[in-house]
Amino acid sequence: MTERCAHYIKHQAMLDTFIRVADHVGCDEKTVRSLAAEHIAWADNGYLPQLPEWLGIDETQIQGKMRCVITDIGRRRPIEMLEGRDKATITNWLNRFQDRSMVKGIAIDMWRPYRDLADEYFPGVPVVIDKFHVVRMANYCMERVRIRLGKQKSKGLRRHGVRSRHVLNKREASLSEQDRLTRDIWLENEPEMKAAYELKEAFYAIYTLPKAEAVAAYDAFAASVPAPIKPDFKVLLSSPGACAGAASWQSVRVRQHECQPACRSRSSPDASTKR
Pfam families in the record, alphabetically (predicted)? Predict the structure, then answer.
């Protein structure tokens, strides 16, 4: 094989599947796999990641394993993907950097080791729980109510609930006139489902409020959950970053509003990392 052909295979292996590259070039897949591994090792050895001003720590699942993804929020790009998301793996990566003073803010999900590492390696730097990971729990809790009530109904009514659930999961502002009609008919005779839907909307609305009002709304949310559906909302009420989280997360919740202008461009790493 010529050097030119090997170089071509290495480049194409980063853009297409190994099987397709092998078929196109007319070689064995193992050859493509070997050359790709060689190219990846070369690129990895020459890559020197830098800490950004706005650091994102998240994860994605690849081949059944959770892997930590470090991102540059300001530039909206991944910096590094680690073998795992455990504390030791991330610690080893952070220890590369003697100077971490350039980091102005950190966005994480609710995985506790991320918070611990942020406090340890970036003392005094604002830590923000990614809004996406918190608000989606409101939809999850509402779905728990829908599923529980559905089990008490006939098969036909359960099917109707499944078909209409996308309407409840939409935000109020995104509903069409037909969606609103479907929602209103469904909720008219379902007081628990109506309460769950209104709680979901109220929780999302917290993130549109000014900081002082948002903090008060967080504190009032738990008291507004009716007793019959409180077990369904337990995961939201007891989660760090939500309204009834541990006291140590209080500053994190406040900073969600202080740091939103800088961190609102953060997006899930799944799309780019799984290509």
Answer: DDE_Tnp_ISL3 (PF01610)
